Amino acid sequence: MDPxxxxxxxxxxxxxxxxxxxxxxxxxxxxxxxxxxxxxxxxRPVGGAEDGIxxxxxxxxxxxxxxxxxxxxxxxxxxxxxxxxxVNIEEHLxxxxxxxxxxxxxINMDKPADSLGLTQQQSEELLREHGLNVLTPPKKRHPFLKxxxxxxxxxxxxxxxxxxxxYILLGIDFKDNFQNTYLGAILIAVAHINAFIEFYQQQKSQxxxxxxxxxxxxxxxxxxxxxxxxxxxxxxxxxxVVFVRMGDKTPADILVFSASDCKVDxxxxxxxxxxxxxxxxxxxxxxxxxxxxxxxxxxxxxxxAYGIVVRTGDSTVLGQIAHLTAGxxxxxxxxxxxxxxxxxxxxxxxxxxxxxxFGIAFPVNNNNASLAINFAIGIFVAWVPEGLPATVTxxxxxxxxxxxxxxxxxxxxxxxxxxGAITLLAxxxxxxxxxxxxxxxxxxxxxxxxxxxxxxxAEKDTAGLDKPGVAEVVHISALCSRARFDRTDVPVRExxxxxxxxxxxxxxxxxxxxxxFDALATEYPKVFELPFNSDTKWHMSIHKKPHANGPxxxxxxxxxxxxxKLCNRILxxxxxxxxxxxxxxxxxxxxxxxxxxxxxHRVLGFAELLLPGDKYPEDFVFDKKAKNYPEGDFVFVGLxxxxxxxxxxxxxxxxxxxxxxxxxxxxxxxxPLTAEAIGRKINLMLSETKQMVAKRTGKxxxxxxxxxxxVVVHGEQIDNLSDAEWDNIFWKxxxxxxxxxxxxxxxxxxxxxxxxxxxxxxxxxxxxxxALKKADLGIAMNKSGSDVSKEAASMILLDxxxxxxxxxxxxxxxxxxxxxxxxxxxxxxxxPEVIPNLLYVIVPIPLPLSAxxxxxxxxxxxxxxxxxxxxxxxxxxxxxxxxxxRKPVTRETANIFRRRALRRTQSRFDEEAGVIVSLENQTKxxxxxxKVRQMFSKEYWQDRFENTGAEVLVDGxxxxxxxxxxxxxxxxxxxxxxxxxxxxxxxxxxDAYLMQKxxxxxxxxxxxxxxxxxxxxxxxxxxxxxxxxxxxxxxIMTMQMFNLFACKTRLTYPFGKYMFANHAxxxxxxxxxxxxxxxxxTPGVEVVFGTTRSLSPLYWLIPMGFGCVIIAxxxxxxxxxxxTKPVKWNPEIAGLQMFPTIRTxxxxxxxxxERLPE
Length: 1158
Fold this sequence. Notes:
1158 residues; alpha+beta; nine-stranded mixed β-sheet; eight-stranded mixed β-sheet; 37 helices; 28 strands
């Protein structure tokens, strides 16, 4: 996590960043506004939110169940927290010479560049002892074990079981069941192929991910044998002396023994929002807070330092934190859970049907055990949709490829759908919602307030070099700075800046305003400088810039109140005109400062002094120790405010998320005012907070009830929140968590999941990794993200663009809808496959569909047709994103979810005490008996079938459509076609019944050597049966073509323009029909499949007629459904601004001080 630098401190005072910006800078964070700027903030109530935004303790019903946590999970959490505290470094408390002696290295404290370091021989020996300075990649399962994981999914196991049962049939009756040799092999092969497709996609995603990972910097500067040289960072060893400077990544954990204005960005490791100063001295015991330790992978943002390597590779703090990530368990995806449930449903139906009809077939067929077992297994196999696993995997693979083209890398196929199912998205601010690039917003000088740039849409009152005082602010920004461009041979917009974020924003602004910016440092060389530090909170530089009274000019910038106190005059007009400070100027300064800060901007003050030539000639030598430089009586030039503006497209993206019913919350390390100001610009917060309601109504905070819908929660409160307070926070519509740590982010994820939320989390820091792994969908950033966070996440945004997440949500919802349509379509053919098997044994009639043709249906035409759903577009342009999430979270569903968690953890809720009571020290047998007893309890079944309003992949209406409605229509249509063919060949249905029943079992008809029946000899009987079976197969295929279109819609009627939106449908139908025609009409092929070429195309009209019935029935069903159960769209959210973010920058009139945030 890399939070934006903050404009204010925790209790409302303007603090200071490393440049003197209004951000906190170490030490006590609870500092106050100057009374002239803002009165002291009232003391925050216990349990309340920042700035009086308190959390109401709602009176909870006794039925409201708190978060359920198992004893095992509690112990695991405590263990990980203890490990996280025990960072194995103690060198920060030791003298430098002692550390050098410990590692047998040679340092020079006075002249660090003259240090000798280790010898080459020492380094080689230590490298053998300690190994390479690289992080050990997370433990990876062997590819073969990964393949086995895919193979042993419930769906594939069901296919393998069906294949094994086919071989059991072969053992019962080898001659008659010989074709089962192929059927069993095909079923088992299909399971392996499906597993391979899933395995291959995972391996491909992993390979792509590894190409993005770069665990440590490739090169670093190291002193060995007294020589400074660039070496491979992986070859560093404890005791090496390294040199790092601005722009470098620290190559290992090092103890600093010499530093010059050095600052590091620890945000990805410790969550610190500000760059941290690094010196050779330290008075902190905690190594994570030590000022003389630089950690592996942290970025040096200013200055330079020499240090001794004290930890390498996995022993570094980075390595230790990465190790802890492995302890967080990954949540099973909703899709995996629902597919497993579907398999259980199918297996239950198949087993029950097989057992029941085995009992029926046994007496009906004269107690023929072999035939009854054969029949039961045939029924079981007929229920198994062999092609469905491959269809689901291919649909997800196609969707994953589509998302990859939109810069979203999916590591786990089922993560594609999970993104569409999320109900809560917790996102960082800096770098995710905002650009992570400070931009100059406003300038106040000579009593006028200007927009910094006309690019923001300002038509007038835009700062220009011709405006009084603006040139001075621009020159101070350019010259009184340590930030610099990486190159000068390209336009300013294309350059990278090395330096602090605030200075970078000012320098970029100055470079855009000044034509001669690159030559400025040469034209006005710096002769003296006092860098910013946390004590003075300002930065001073003196330059050879001549003026009327002398050759030197002093510039200063920093914390506004500090700079203001050093001034006795204020710039008032062009050509350096200034006036004495007075109450009027002070009031204008206070008003402007407050206005800028209230908008969440970082504010800097600027001052100058034209040094008199008689006292400070051009060759004057300034001395820090002698303090022979001016220390006051400066001229206050003005104020400049900077902001980290929202990324383009973020506002519309969050608006679309909220319109889709997804709760978007911000989790940031920033100050609440900054977070709220940004939140209100980007649709994340629109409603009033408790403080705003109090202000509007004139009531005190204690008098405000529950009429507010937005809440800003301060990180200080999180550790002390009760279960009821957590719930009350999450029932608010708009939530911002400010001043949070990575530990808080993990707790937020856990609390949301305990209510039944499907949680997506964005993160980029090393310490975000546990939250990324714990979330249902962890989303890491590719460009700004750490390697550890990418490993922990399920999905990676390749362009770090939040808008990609929203596209992913839409894609996820679409793939769920298409998966559901595909399953609805695919399992419909089970009924016309199972019913003939039942009739074959129970009536009996000739077998209308052989086992080989069932397999051809499932793996032939059906596979092609079902795959076509992968390319189905949404039914309406905005329909998908106007529907609520498929598993909405309400107070009722939260309690249902927690009751199920109670059963799962074998706990109970004590309503009187309001606490969860867990059963401890349970043996495995006791736990198993508990689960069995639960299944026979009334509460279990009530809870099991309680309506949560959730839409699941396979639900009652889908099963009814497939098995009872369209399935029966297809069965009737196919049987009608079957008997019409027989009737046209001289065999009535009654004749077919008599021939099949015969005088005993097995019968003596329908084979080539069968006895004649009514003058029809054996070969003719076999041909009639083959033609009728071919017709049954063709009829199922034809009716399924119509069903394909009937399954396409759930919001519109199954005809019209949408039916032609997916061209792949027609290609797949053509491919499937070609395969069916090949099987029936190709010479020689009929021998394999038991079909015949004599099937007349005239018979095709029968299933086509039934197909029209299917479309008519689907239309009637849709018409009735619309009236009885209309579609529930999300309610409109008042105030959503769906125009581009770039238009949100409003013109600030130089004389208009509007208080409302943008």
